[in-house]
Amino acid sequence: MEPPFTNEPEASASRLSVPFQIRFPAATATAFFAGSFLGVSHGSQTAGLRFRAENAHRLPTSSTGWYLYHKSKNYHMMFGAIKEGLKMGSKVGFWVGGFFAVEEAIDRARGRVDFLSTVVAGLSVAGGLSAWHRFPLLAAAKTAKIGLLSGLVFGLTQDALGLARGRRPFYVDFILGTKETSRNIAV
Where are the alpha helices (DSSP H) in 111-169? Predict the structure, then answer.
């Protein structure tokens, strides 16, 4: 009995030889933790400076007062760090998850796995980010350039790793003038 129709990449043809069901949550979680780390660092510092500015008119005069001042400041810094860490981690995780989802959708729609899908995903996410934040034209162009370069580098790196594992991208056969023997994705 033949397996049912599927457009999912084979394990050897999937990106980095990791199936999408594993790659997507791993990338999103990694991005969330990296964003959380950055958010905690920034949020803690910002909350400390805000506390200092809000209480500059009533600085303590005794050692007990200074102890309580710093204790309160530390609580505010911890709360600000957690709040900003969750916020930044969610934002970064969302955009990275969007990148990997668009990349996989384009791979399945095209029927092959190569760097072009990654470039289109990078440009799509850059465009979505620019539209979401209503960037002016110059900032949107710079964001698109970063998305293009990031997608190109990431995609070519994935293709190089795939080539090292025995999966030849279609453009290698096209450049060499040889005929493609098999497709990257089982249809």
Answer: 115-132, 137-164
Short-list 71, 158, 70, CA closest to 113: 158
Q: Taking the chain, what is the end-to-end CA distance rounded to the nearest angstrom? A: 16
Cα–Cα distance measured from residue 168 to residue 183, given in angstroms and rounded to the nearest whole number:
10
Closest CA to 97 of 5, 152, 147, 23: 23
DSSP conformational letter for 135 = -
Angle made by CA atoms 22, 99, 13, in degrees to the nearest 5: 50
Angle between helices 63-110 and 115-132 (to 10 degrees): 130
Per-residue pLDDT tens for 87-109?
999 999 999 999 999 999 999 99
Which 8-state DSSP code applies to residue 172?
A: H
| Separation CA 13–CA 170 (nearest Å) | 12
Contact 92, 34 (CB under 8 A): yes
CB 104 within 8 A of CB 24: yes
pLDDT in tens, 11-51: 455 787 789 999 999 999 999 999 999 999 999 999 999 99
